[in-house]
């Protein structure tokens, strides 16, 4: 897995180098053009990726702390939280900030509850989660749209929902 | 006298009811953010960056400074009462603070942390007041080559010195620099890495990266790996210091300030080194019974010193931010982003072009420190209640605030998808021990450094030797090389000695 991380870094470096090819140099009389830094970054990242792979293959990452928490990821929780965030991204402009964030909250809380071994999914608990989610998102929405004048999408154009 | 006059002017601005209110709200929010696990000052400031489009610049900088400061006070509460230290800055406080709390002296530890933060914060603010204008006067003389080398110095220390692995720190920095490249090149107007998407022409907002890496990644990481981790809360006791506690704390506060302030001033950043140094000093100076308390019952000096060092360096870090425009931590990097949103570039000119703003900001630091002392001493029991919020609800709630920050900046649902992607990336970084601060610093400072580099090379008529020809940039270059090479040489020599000894 550490090798894969190194491979990922290497791949980012290569992708950046690929992108850098299409940036014109246009250095003018300064000698350093807009493609200079991208090339430096791309080449250095390729180098870092290679070194990370070498570390991974020769005894693992150096000076690394044991990551905190469980040894293996709890993927159902990841799925729930991802669902919440992506649903939010997909729906926020159509159903408005309050409803969309409440949905995101409810989905994420399901995952987090399961992760900590709490019971989740019963209708009573869900109802409480929906209520809590709305009780956080609604005041946040009002504070930002009414007092600070920041545009957040609403279901209606009243500024209250 | 000029400074005193300017400062008084600043106070006149800062004590207007509106600004006082912003400072107060900032301090309250900052303390809350510091107390709550899973969310720190950098992400709080980042989430609130959208307000820069509506709120006046002085008010919002006072507000952000309040959050920045408040989180330092609040953070010590959590690290003393919970067994998991919140941020790196309070890790050292946690070592002795936890021991003290376990032996029933949580109150004294909280008191010495809060009063120590106040003492150090105030002394460091005086240092900022006196020295920032001097540094600004000096900094006017710096040209692009010197600026570029200063920024390289900041990059080097943030990525190579502060983390555990130079390789992983550098990788993180390079990723930050790459993100900073996305968008229109500021000098030639060339689009870079935009993949033909108009959304990317403006670049990636700092809010997205900060909120994604710190908030969303934190929530995902907690859900995936830390669901079963349990933490015990230490019992609270009366917030009170005995005469002996005072006698032991006062010198420790002063020593901590003395150690912390210089570290904040240099564009190298980080609170780990000064807090550890202060801890080591206190332990070395302790004698007899006091020494025996270290690591057993918990020694009060071990909380007082590092906490003061922490606050002093955090405050003094405003000097390089305001006078050179060089941020040395996550939060100062994002505050630099806030200045940029107003079209203000912190740097030596700031003290002349935006004098009223700077001095109001500095004055608000004095006021904020007093507010925070009051908020954190008599009212600490209230803040402790925040630790009772159950984790699932707390973390899911953080996502709502993350949405506000990410969406409020550009009103784009595309940004929310990016936010998710950055969050997943952050989980990987955390799992494989890549530091995140270099990403943010690289992203913010990268474009500035690139501009300085290109100006410098233009001055040198296309030749890079310009960096060697000017004494100060050469000196900085030598320093950067020394920072990278010396620790390695020392390690290699120690290893060799170990081998010959065998």
Q: How does this model look, in words?
A:
The complex is a heterodimer of chains A (161) and B (502). By secondary structure, chain A is an all-alpha fold. Chain A has two domains: 2-57; 75-147, no CATH class. Chain A has four helices and no strands. In chain A, helix 1 packs antiparallel against helix 2 and helix 3 (75-115) packs across helix 4. The longest helix of chain A has 41 residues, at 75-115. The two termini of chain A are 46 Å apart. The model of chain A has no long low-confidence stretch (mean pLDDT 88). With 502 residues, chain B is an all-alpha fold. Chain B has one domain (2-469). Chain B has 23 helices and two strands. Chain B has helices spanning 2-14, 17-35, 41-47, 57-81, 91-102, 106-139, 144-161, 166-181, 206-225, 243-265, 272-285, 288-293, 301-316, 318-324, 330-341, 350-353, 355-376, 380-385, 391-410, 413-431, 437-459, 466-469, 471-501; strands spanning 183-184, 191-192. Chain B has a two-stranded antiparallel ribbon. In chain B, a hairpin with a 6-residue loop joins strand 1 (183-184) and strand 2 (191-192). Chain B is globular. The mean pLDDT of chain B is 88. At the A-B interface, helix 1, helix 2, helix 3 and helix 4 of A face helix 8, helix 9, helix 19, helix 20 and helix 21 of B.
């Amino acid at each position: 897995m550490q090798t894969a991380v190194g491979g990922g870094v290497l791949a980012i470096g290569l992708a950046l180098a690929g992108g850098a090819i299409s940036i014109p140099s246009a250095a003018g009389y300064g000698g350093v053009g807009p493609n200079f830094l991208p090339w430096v970054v791309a080449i250095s990242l390729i180098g870092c990726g290679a070194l990370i792979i070498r570390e991974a293959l020769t005894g693992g990452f150096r000076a690394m702390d044991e990551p905190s928490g469980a040894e293996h990821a709890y993927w159902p929780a990841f799925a729930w939280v991802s669902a919440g965030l992506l649903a939010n991204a997909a729906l926020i402009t159509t159903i408005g900030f309050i409803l969309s964030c409440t949905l995101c909250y409810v989905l994420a809380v399901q995952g987090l509850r399961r992760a900590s071994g709490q019971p989740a999914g019963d209708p009573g608990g869900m109802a409480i989660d929906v209520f809590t989610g709305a009780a956080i998102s609604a005041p946040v929405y009002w504070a930002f749209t009414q007092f600070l004048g920041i545009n957040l999408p609403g279901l209606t154009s009243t500024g209250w929902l | 006298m000029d400074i005193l006059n300017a400062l008084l002017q600043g106070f006149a601005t800062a004590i207007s009811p509106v600004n006082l209110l912003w400072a107060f709200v900032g301090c309250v929010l900052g303390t809350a953010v510091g107390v709550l696990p899973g969310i720190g000052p950098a992400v709080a400031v980042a989430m609130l960056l959208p307000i820069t489009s509506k709120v006046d610049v002085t008010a919002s900088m006072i507000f952000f400074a309040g959050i920045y400061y408040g989180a330092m006070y609040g953070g010590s509460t959590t690290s003393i009462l919970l067994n998991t230290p919140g941020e790196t800055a309070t890790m050292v406080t946690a070592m002795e603070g936890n021991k003290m709390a376990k032996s029933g002296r949580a109150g004294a530890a909280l008191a010495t942390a809060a009063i120590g933060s106040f003492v150090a914060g105030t002394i460091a603010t005086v240092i900022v007041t006196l020295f920032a204008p001097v540094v600004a006067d000096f900094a006017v003389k710096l040209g692009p080559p010197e600026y570029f080398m200063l920024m390289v110095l900041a990059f080097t220390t943030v990525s190579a010195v502060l983390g555990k692995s130079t390789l992983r720190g550098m990788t993180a920095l390079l990723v930050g620099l790459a993100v900073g490249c996305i968008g229109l090149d500021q000098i030639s107007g060339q689009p870079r890495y935009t993949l033909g998407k108009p959304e990317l022409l403006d670049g990636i907002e700092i809010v997205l990266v900060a909120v994604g890496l710190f908030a969303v990644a934190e929530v995902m990481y907690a859900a995936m790996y830390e669901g079963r981790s349990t933490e015990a809360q230490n019992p609270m006791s009366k917030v009170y210091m005995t005469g002996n506690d005072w006698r032991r704390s006062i010198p420790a506060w002063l020593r901590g300030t003395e150690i912390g302030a210089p570290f904040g001033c240099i564009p190298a950043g980080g609170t780990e080194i000064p807090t550890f140094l202060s801890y080591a000093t206190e332990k070395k100076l302790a004698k007899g019974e006091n020494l025996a308390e270290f690591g057993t019952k918990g020694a009060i000096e071990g909380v007082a010193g590092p906490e003061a060092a922490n606050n002093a360096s955090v405050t003094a870090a405003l000097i390089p931010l305001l006078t050179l425009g060089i941020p040395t931590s996550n939060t100062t990097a994002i505050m630099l982003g806030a200045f940029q949103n107003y079209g203000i570039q912190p740097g030596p000119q700031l003290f002349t072009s935006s004098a009223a703003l700077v001095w109001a900001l500095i004055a608000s630091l004095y006021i904020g420190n007093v507010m925070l002392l009051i908020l954190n001493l008599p009212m600490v029991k209230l803040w402790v209640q925040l630790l009772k919020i159950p984790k699932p609800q707390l973390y899911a709630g953080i996502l709502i605030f993350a949405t506000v920050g990410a969406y409020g900046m550009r009103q784009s649902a595309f940004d929310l998808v990016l936010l998710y992607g950055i969050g997943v990336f952050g989980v990987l970084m955390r799992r494989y021990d890549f530091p995140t601060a270099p990403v943010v610093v690289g992203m913010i400072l990268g474009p500035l450094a690139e501009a300085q580099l290109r100006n410098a090379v233009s001055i040198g008529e296309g030749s890079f030797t310009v960096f060697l020809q000017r004494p100060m940039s050469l000196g900085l270059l030598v320093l950067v090389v020394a920072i990278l090479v010396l620790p390695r040489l020392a390690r290699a020599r120690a290893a060799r000695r170990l081998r010959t000894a065998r």
